[in-house]
Amino acid sequence: xxxxxxxxxxxxxxxxxxxxxxxxxxxxxxxxxxxxxxxxxxxxxxxxxxxxxxxxxxxxxxxxxxxxxxxxxxxxxxxxxxxxxxxxxxxxxxxxxxxxxxxxxxxxxxxxxxxxxxxxxxxxxxxxxxxxxxxxxxxxxxxxxxxxxxxxxxxxxxxxxxxxxxxxxxxxxxxxxxxxxxxxxxxxxxxxxxxxxxxxxxxxxxxxxxxxxxxxxxxxxxxxxxxxxxxxxxxxxxxxxxxxxxxxxxxxxxxxxxxxxx
Length: 262
Known about the structure:
Blueprint: H1 2-21, E1 48-60, H2 63-69, E2 74-85, E3 88-98, E4 104-116, E5 125-136, E6 145-157, E7 160-171, E8 182-191, E9 197-206, E10 220-229, E11 235-244, E12 251-261
Antiparallel strand pairs: 1-2, 1-12, 2-3, 3-4, 4-5, 5-6, 6-7, 7-8, 8-9, 9-10, 10-11, 11-12
């Protein structure tokens, strides 16, 4: 019975993404400053977590993919998160990048409020959300000032954890301004292999403006096999390789997250 329920919940999350793919403004690009899936849990109350996000595109094939992915560019982002309540955390990002001009420079900042919805009953599905304001430098982002609203849904079955992030971004300035919300879905399926490591399959997409969505070939979709290591409770270590699935994402990127909770 529980297995059937888990399959139905998983199918529902996947169906939401597939339904959006069927629809036709070109999309921009996934967020290479922060390649991360948000779950419904938050930082421990009164504790500070520092993370370093390191992302780099290694290859891209075709003019569109090279323009969207920024080959050989390196992005390093420091994230500081503080647990305010049992279900609420706040965070600040400081983004840096080595761009095509070869200069390593400050790229901008972001502020987030991330929460999980407290549950009175033992629900099979957990809900949460993330609200983020991006204020990046014009030279580093097509849409420098952006508001992101990210509903989060998660469910577990035995050693599996399935999480869906359905991010809607509204650019206030830049190329995507005044075109309405842009849809950037993502998610992951995690398997708790043992006390040391949890392999996962992550997904990241950028579909562009909702009205109308870009053609599938102009959208970005990546599958990212990853490993999550749990050597000690305070340490977070996530390593992955992203593989593009469309003409606009025909390439490979490397990602890592190293974090420590104080």
